[in-house]
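F.,

This is the one I mentioned.
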């Protein structure tokens, strides 16, 4: 139906914008020039991502529920607010939106000669520690979402 397609597009677009702003805001060329201003830059990224999530949920909530994240879609399924089919469809279009945003960022990026921050940023982070951090972060995200919609 038309409403179903609108909901799928809303989820795809919301996730696209979230990934575009969150990942696009962390530009290695800008970070390399910050030097002493990095803490302020980190705050601006956090505020920008938070505002993007808030705006995308606000824009998409009437159409699709404003999930814009697979973990939230799973949460609403487990809370019996969406069907299994709808959850799977939302997750598929959310991944499509995320991959398209990553492709756009890759296409407009200039990655020649940038400094690789991976080694210093994640030094001492094992896979298990990163997994535990991700699980805790998703749990906190779901908890806040449940508190907001209750």
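My design for it:
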């Amino acid at each position: 139906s038309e409403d179903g397609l609108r909901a799928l597009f809303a989820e795809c677009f919301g996730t696209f914008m979230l990934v575009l702003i969150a990942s696009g805001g962390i530009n290695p060329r800008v970070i390399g020039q910050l030097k002493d201003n990095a803490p302020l830059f980190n705050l601006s990224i956090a505020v920008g991502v938070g505002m993007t999530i808030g705006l995308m949920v606000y824009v998409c909530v009437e159409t699709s529920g404003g999930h814009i994240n697979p973990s939230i879609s799973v949460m609403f399924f487990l809370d019996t607010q969406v069907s299994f089919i709808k959850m799977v469809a939302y997750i598929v279009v959310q991944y499509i939106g995320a991959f398209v945003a990553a492709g756009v960022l890759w296409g407009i990026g200039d990655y020649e000669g940038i400094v690789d921050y991976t080694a210093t940023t994640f030094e001492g982070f094992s896979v298990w520690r990163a997994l535990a951090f991700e699980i805790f972060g998703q749990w906190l995200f779901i908890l806040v979402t449940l508190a907001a919609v209750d």
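The chain has a mean pLDDT of 81.

Talk soon.
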